[in-house]
Amino acid sequence: MMNRNISLTINSKPVTLTADVRQSLLEVLREHGYTSVKEGCGVGECGACTVLVDDVPLDSCLYLAVWADGRSVRTVEGETKHGRLSEVQQAYLDTGAVQCGFCTPGLIMASTAFVEKYKDREKVSRTEIRRAHAGNLCRCTGYEGIIRAVEQCLKVEEDEDTYNECRVTNDE
């Protein structure tokens, strides 16, 4: 084994962990109890393992744990504060975006990054929301609830133009 100590912040708490230099961040997080981070495909295609590293959504199955040294990592476990769901988590519940739940933590983290990036912008299109979640696959929801959850957080008004943007053509 080629172990190395890494110091990082996980969900606002500074920690020092020992990780094999060949281990993914996904493996190390799960070993330390962050079980919301799921391994779906293991090759960066499904997004079930999405976490925020320095507020950027990343597939933790492709990201080596040693690369997180000195960085801030956020998982779904850290989004609930003082027993209250985050705005994104609550919106997922309100809009019916949660089905079986396997992909939900990764989707919530992708949504959180998007909402934090665009919360002060006047208008966000459904196409932008869809593109921001393109790396996260869900077999249960059909994505409509997820899009509505993000719109709820960004206080996007539902109108005919917004829904027409949802159609994706081969030209895009």
Determine the fraction of residues in helical runs and give it as a percent range.
Answer: 25-40%
Would you tell me the structural class of the helices and strands? alpha+beta
How does the major sheet shape up? Answer: 5 strands, mixed
- Tell me the strand order in the biggest sheet: 2-1-5-3-4
Fourth-tier CATH superfamily name of the largest domain: [2Fe-2S]-binding domain
Quote the beta fraction: 15-25%
What is the average of the pLDDT values?
90
| Name of the CATH architecture of the largest domain | Orthogonal Bundle
Distance between the termini: 46 Å
Counting H and I runs of at least 4 residues, what is the number of helices?
Answer: 6
Mass-distribution shape: globular
Count of the domains: 2
**Name of the CATH class of the largest domain:** Mainly Alpha
Radius of gyration (CA) equals: 17 Å
Topology as a string of helices (H) and strands (E): EEHEEEHHHHH
CATH topology of the largest domain: DNA polymerase, domain 1
Poorly predicted segments: 160-172
Strand segment count = 5
What features would you describe in this structure?
The protein has about 170 residues and is of the alpha+beta class. The protein has two domains: about 5-75, Beta-grasp domain (Ubiquitin-like (UB roll), Roll), CATH 3.10.20; about 85-165, DNA polymerase, domain 1 (Orthogonal Bundle), CATH 1.10.150. About 30% of the residues lie in helices and about 15% in strands. The protein has six helices and five strands. The protein has a five-stranded mixed beta sheet with strand order 2-1-5-3-4, covered by helices on one side. Strand 1 and strand 2 (about 15-20) form a beta hairpin. Helix 2 packs across helix 5 (about 145-155) and helix 3 packs parallel to helix 5 (about 145-155).
